[in-house]
Amino acid sequence: MRPRGPRERATDVLAGNWYDPQNNYFLIVKQGGAYTLTGHGGLGQTATGTATLSGNLVRLDITDVVVGRYTVELRLSGDTMQGTIRVMGFPMPLVLTRH
Predict the structure, then answer these.
(1) How far is residue 37's CA from residue 16's CA, in Å, rounded to a whole number?
(2) pLDDT under 70 in the chain at which residues?
(3) pTM for the whole thing?
(4) 35-41: long-range contacts at Cβ-Cβ below 8 A with a sequence spacing of 24 or more?
(5) Which domain holds residue 74?
(6) CA Rg, the chain, in Å?
(7) What's the rounded Cα separation, in Å, for the pair 96 and 83?
């Protein structure tokens, strides 16, 4: 599900819409010196949280109405973030792309 409004695409390395292969996305917005995020999918907006950037490591601290609270650490390279997420105790690859 793609957002209806204009895409957030600035010169900032982290701000914007970051999509997973199933077309769910996180909208990351820079507010002052911090980043906030909202997660969107088939049920609409289901998550809120924060993002932090240290070098090329991105940490997403997320509270989701379906799966609860979780943290993901991803490596940033251009318009791609990659890492793993634990689903029911099992590590699963996670790739987010900005477009």
Answers:
(1) 10
(2) 1-10
(3) 0.85
(4) 37/62, 39/64, 40/1, 40/3, 41/1
(5) 16-98
(6) 13
(7) 9
